[in-house]
Amino acid sequence: MAEIASLYRYPVKGFSPEALEAADLRPFHRFESDRAYAIENGPSGFDPAAPGHLPKAKFLCLMKNARLASLDTHFDSETQVWTIDGHGDRFSADLSTSAGRAATEAFLTDFMGDERRGPLKVLSAPGHAFTDVGKPYVSFINLASVGAIGDLVGKPVDPLRFRANINLAGLEPWQELELVGREARIGDVRLRFTKRTQRCAATNVDLETATRDLDIPGTLLRNLDHMDCGIYADVLDGGTIRIGDALRFD
């Protein structure tokens, strides 16, 4: 039987995951505070008054900026204060204020150095999430599939490389890819699995060393003729999910 092994949100796109014990989900909405902020790396054309989807390369992201993994960040959703620890420094700022955003931009400008393509800018918009696919999905990783990738590359692979909201235990490797189009329940929540997740170079980054040590998309393509690991889902009926909740099919 498949069940939730762990839950995560990523308040600022490209930065640290935050582990959760439970999550309250709303229909057709992502996890609360998930990808609520992004750091623009040079002008992106993002309009907070009319927010739309932009490619992840417009922002600081692990796909382009492996050094982000060397920072340990934490976001307080009540106060909107974002704290960054790294390289012996600690920085905190309220991302809901112009002063806090300006201070954050200055801190990250120094940290990013020559990886900046232009001015850095903290972005957000009410109700908007900076997801890779531009839709308010929740994302799943099958831990058995991650284990199978480890067998292919010859070393253990950290599931956090895949930056999913929900890690599932109890499925067979790659079984999650067969769930697209099906509905299921977890706790009080009803979901529809919507699409497979194609992996990018962000998964190549070792989160401990902040270096690129693997070629996971290429490994998948060479061995399986696709670059997919994980799936997205729409929330149909809201409710609360918790670690240990089982995945049930009607």
Features:
3 helices; 250 residues; single chain; 33% strand; globular; M1 Pyruvate Kinase, Domain 3; 2 domains; alpha+beta; 3-stranded antiparallel beta sheet; 8-stranded mixed beta sheet; 14% helix
Explain what the structure shows:
This protein has about 250 residues and is of the alpha+beta class. It has 2 domains: about 140 residues, PK beta-barrel domain-like (M1 Pyruvate Kinase, Domain 3), CATH 2.40.33; about 90 residues, no CATH class. It contains 3 helices and 17 strands. The strands form 5 sheets. An 8-stranded mixed β-sheet has the order 2-1-10-9-15-12-11-17. A hairpin with a 2-residue loop joins strand 11 and strand 12. The longest helix has 15 residues. The mean pLDDT is about 95.
Break the fold down into its secondary structure elements and pairings.
Layout: E1 3-9, E2 18-20, E3 22-25, E4 38-41, E5 72-76, E6 81-86, E7 89-94, H1 98-112, E8 120-123, E9 138-142, H2 143-153, E10 166-169, E11 183-186, E12 189-198, E13 205-206, E14 211-212, H3 216-224, E15 228-237, E16 239-242, E17 247-248
Parallel strand pairs: 9-10
Antiparallel strand pairs: 1-2, 1-10, 3-16, 4-8, 5-6, 6-7, 9-15, 11-12, 11-17, 12-15, 13-14
- What is the CATH level 1 assignment of the largest domain? Mainly Beta
Largest sheet: 8 strands, mixed
Give the topology string: H per helix, E per strand. Answer: EEEEEEEHEEHEEEEEHEEE
Fraction in helix: 10-25%
Number of beta-strand segments: 17
**Low-confidence segments, ≥5 residues, pLDDT <50?**
none
Radius of gyration from CA coordinates: 18 Å
Q: Name the CATH superfamily classification of the largest domain.
A: PK beta-barrel domain-like
According to CATH, the fold-level topology of the largest domain is: M1 Pyruvate Kinase, Domain 3
Mean model confidence by pLDDT: 96
| Strand-residue proportion | 25-35%
Secondary structure category:
alpha+beta
At CATH level 2, the architecture of the largest domain is Beta Barrel
How many domains make up the coordinates?
Answer: 2
Shape field: globular
Distance between the termini: 14 Å
Sheet with the most strands: spatial strand order: 2-1-10-9-15-12-11-17
Number of helices: 3
